[in-house]
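Now read these lines:
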Amino acid sequence: MSTIRDSFSQLQDYMNSRIIGQRGLVQKLLVALLSDGHLLVEGLPGLAKTKAVKVLADTIDAGFQRIQFTPDLLPADITGSDVYRPETNSFFFQKGPIFNNLILADEINRAPAKVQSALLEAMGERQATIGNETYRLPDLFMVMATQNPIEQEGTYNLPEAQLDRFLMYVKIGYPDIESERRILKLVQGEEKKVPVPQFSRIKQEQIFEARREVLDTYMSPELEEYLIQFIMATRHPEAYGDDVARLIRFGASPRGTIALDIVVRAAAWLDGRDFVTPKDIQGLIPDVLRHRIILSFEAKSAHMTTDDVLTMLLERVPLP
């Protein structure tokens, strides 16, 4: 195991000790970081969505900013704006919170379309345009957005174009009973101010080096072909049955292929391996594709989800 990989393994263990009962969220948060992508997390209140990214930010030598999304938020509240300086009769650009390395977009679906479009440019192009000027964002730039699945009042559905900018769309649920006991003990310890060992902060250069190692993770030609065939199955589901064909209106774009390729390599690398397995691909397909497939009216009227449809395809697209 490389020194950098060992550091990330320690980081994962440390985060799992602080974010109890959400090992999947911790893994996918690190996979997104290693893949140079953004993460959308959906879960009920109190499931440590916000805490997870805060713990990650505390372990990395990088700037962190939380943005609380509200209906009255303006694009300038995210990107920044030109400010008039009367003593020199000139304007200067005051950078907004988007110019940090790690961004927590809390309750992202509460902001209106103008704010979403400003965030869309930052996520897709790694830049922000204010007036006639375009400003580059930091080389290390990652957005983790959260949304609540049960509250709909005062919320706005994210545009399909913006959803596609997220590398993964992760859904999390309640922890099990043993994790619940550990959470209670952890909180009691925190309230008593029991000291917690601090994880040594990871440098940005180490993250960039880890990303280069991820790209070298081996995927066999057979698995690469399986990955492509699965993407094609979302576009031409009729090849796998008329019943599934009636459920899909639009399949995944090439961005889905690229995203699936990099995240499975990152997951394998994080797991201490130099090669990708079929389990890596099948395990991450729902998180990478659930927001990239548009269901038909028939599927929606039958109360089916994209996860249901992906499960059907996982059963029908043959493994190599």
